[in-house]
From TrEMBL:
<dbReference type="InterPro" id="IPR011053">
    <property type="entry name" value="Single_hybrid_motif"/>
</dbReference>
<dbReference type="InterPro" id="IPR023213">
    <property type="entry name" value="CAT-like_dom_sf"/>
</dbReference>
<keyword id="KW-0012">Acyltransferase</keyword>
<dbReference type="Pfam" id="PF00364">
    <property type="entry name" value="Biotin_lipoyl"/>
</dbReference>
<dbReference type="InterPro" id="IPR000089">
    <property type="entry name" value="Biotin_lipoyl"/>
</dbReference>
<dbReference type="InterPro" id="IPR003016">
    <property type="entry name" value="2-oxoA_DH_lipoyl-BS"/>
</dbReference>
<dbReference type="InterPro" id="IPR050743">
    <property type="entry name" value="2-oxoacid_DH_E2_comp"/>
</dbReference>
<dbReference type="InterPro" id="IPR001078">
    <property type="entry name" value="2-oxoacid_DH_actylTfrase"/>
</dbReference>
<dbReference type="GO" id="GO:0031405">
    <property type="term" value="F:lipoic acid binding"/>
</dbReference>
<keyword id="KW-0808">Transferase</keyword>
<feature type="domain" description="Lipoyl-binding">
    <location>
        <begin position="2"/>
        <end position="77"/>
    </location>
</feature>
<protein>
    <recommendedName>
        <fullName>Dihydrolipoamide acetyltransferase component of pyruvate dehydrogenase complex</fullName>
        <ecNumber>2.3.1.-</ecNumber>
    </recommendedName>
</protein>
<dbReference type="InterPro" id="IPR004167">
    <property type="entry name" value="PSBD"/>
</dbReference>
<dbReference type="Pfam" id="PF02817">
    <property type="entry name" value="E3_binding"/>
</dbReference>
<comment type="similarity">
    <text>Belongs to the 2-oxoacid dehydrogenase family.</text>
</comment>
<feature type="domain" description="Peripheral subunit-binding (PSBD)">
    <location>
        <begin position="156"/>
        <end position="193"/>
    </location>
</feature>
<dbReference type="GO" id="GO:0005737">
    <property type="term" value="C:cytoplasm"/>
</dbReference>
Amino acid sequence: MSESVLLPALGESVTEGTVIRWLKAVGERVSIDEPLVEVSTDKVDTEIPSPFAGILASILVPEDHIADIGAVLAVIAAETAAVEPPADRDSLGDFPANRPRTASARGPLSRGAQNELASSGRDRGLTSPTETPAPPVVEPVETKAPPVATQVAGRYFTPLVRKLARELKVDLASVAGTGIGGRVRGDDVRAAAAPAVIAATTGLRGTVVKAPRIRAVIASRMRESLNTSTQLTQVHEVDVTGIVRLREKAKAQFAAVHGVKLTYLPFIAQAVAEALKVHPMLNAAFDEAAGTITYHDAEHLAFAVDAPKGLMVPVVRDAGSLNLAGLAAGIADVAARTRDGSIKAEELNGGTFSITNIGSVGALFDTPIINQPQVGILGVGSIVKRPMVVTGPDGDDLLAIRHMMYLCLTYDHRLVDGADAGRFLQTVTGRLAAASFEADLGLVNGQ
């Protein structure tokens, strides 16, 4: 007996995926739920676990080939069944060089069939068993890319840390952990990989390489966005000295109570979520063909994340109903899981407004591109100290050192006028300048 491994549903709008790497070779034994193949979509990269235990009898979709949702990726045989010898990449009958896309073995799946597959008890990529001959088992062959061991020299590493280490080519045995009990965290792996990343980047000089799938997706989305909407960027400056002082007072207690680091981004996110309720045209979608405007009834904030594989934009849902601690936890959670590759495809969909922290790389301001079908994206610049003219207690002009920041709003001029954008930014900057977050931070009278 043998079982077919299907490409499962990977998100609401995902219709296909590219096989990036097989984690097992033909002839190898595989356990149920053991990572079998890594697949990339236009939303996220993910590992597909094996729905069966047995021997990997054949691989039907080779690496760098595209498969539709529901397509047969591989066949797993019982350990007493025959195993096909590994086929040469160019000799796979179903995937000649001029046909890099595959369809389901049963033909294209209808939407209803896909939904049924996704909701069934066997939603991880399986179909009914098929008969195969049963001569002696072929000896397992050496795998091309063995997964990193769970334990190295007696130390335990989570699957996500192992995956990140494999992607960044980091030897976990040499990484010092900063987590509880010395456990290695994703940030530890990224820090260890930093020198290697610099070396790899400089090594690209004078070369021509194939664009990674995520780079091609980003390029397509950016071009599509500029071709779809009329985009303008408006920049306002805000004095965030009060927030800087509040954060300095509260960050240690905040981390101890809520278990998450207090950055400036949650303050900005809360101000944005509140402003979107007052200015709903920035929390909307415009269908020019239909002549309709959809005003969303919730604020789902999307945050641009500089992930190892490229720009990704996970969503914190119902941000308008969260307090400062909830926003801090939500942002930290989706950002961490985006960077280590564990974010789900559906968590990259459904945003109604985006925020990009360009200040994290020292930028003062930028002209962000809208994440369609949204109508606005806010760029958050670096906080810098500058001499500013302020009003003293007696109404006199005084020169003082203040913490200043630029906010850059790119908006869709088809729906949002410049005055609308200005009023929205005034609401955001007014909230930030007032710095009235003491209650959220557990401070009484600023103490």
